[in-house]
Amino acid sequence: MKRTVLIALALLPVSLATASDDPIAQRQDLMSETREALKPLIGISRGQADFDAETVSASLAVFANTAEKAPALFPEGSETGGDTEAKATIWSDRDGFDQRFQDFAEAVAAAQAANIASAEELGPKLQDVLGTCKGCHDNYRVEKE
Predict the structure, then answer these.
(1) Does residue 145 form part of some domain?
(2) Which of 4, 43, 93, 118 could, after both became Cys, cross-link 49 (CB 3.0–4.6 A)?
(3) Which are the contacts of 110, defined by CB distance < 8 A and separation ≥ 6?
(4) Helices (H) then strands (E): counts for the chain
């Protein structure tokens, strides 16, 4: 429980920062929150941190929130500016982009439904989720040097 509260408190500034009307800033904040939620899962899956079901659940809830909210944060007109890492293919292949988020949502839902109870169970589900992230990043995100 303590760990879940600490994660929620750590992410609070990110959530407050999204009050902006700027979709680029909102999506960057959302992705930052998602990256932060991933960190403890990586540690658990690598055996660098003890398994904690509440942490896993809290991180997966952040992922589910991202899957739900992120697609709307890429409206027409937000292709440039704000140090965006978004590729133009988001808007030229909108159906493909939206499908990637659907794939992400499904992988997250499957992980949530699995009621993960150990690091060994987390590993494959996390790989499924991360595979959907990679698919989107490979096609729709500019890698910063």
Answers:
(1) no
(2) 43
(3) 125, 128
(4) 6, 0
Q: How many domains does the chain have?
A: 1
At 88, list the tokens: 């133009």
Q: What is the pTM of this model?
A: 0.84
Tell me the mean pLDDT per 10 residues along the chain, length 145.
56 54 96 98 97 98 98 96 93 97 98 97 97 95 83
Between CA 113 and CA 100 the distance in angstroms is: 20
Name, in order, each residue with C-beta under 8 angstroms of 9's C-beta and a sequence gap of 6 or more.
none
Place of tokens 């794939």: 103
In-domain check, residue 122: yes
Residue count of the chain, please give it. Answer: 145
CATH number at residue 129: 1.20.120.10
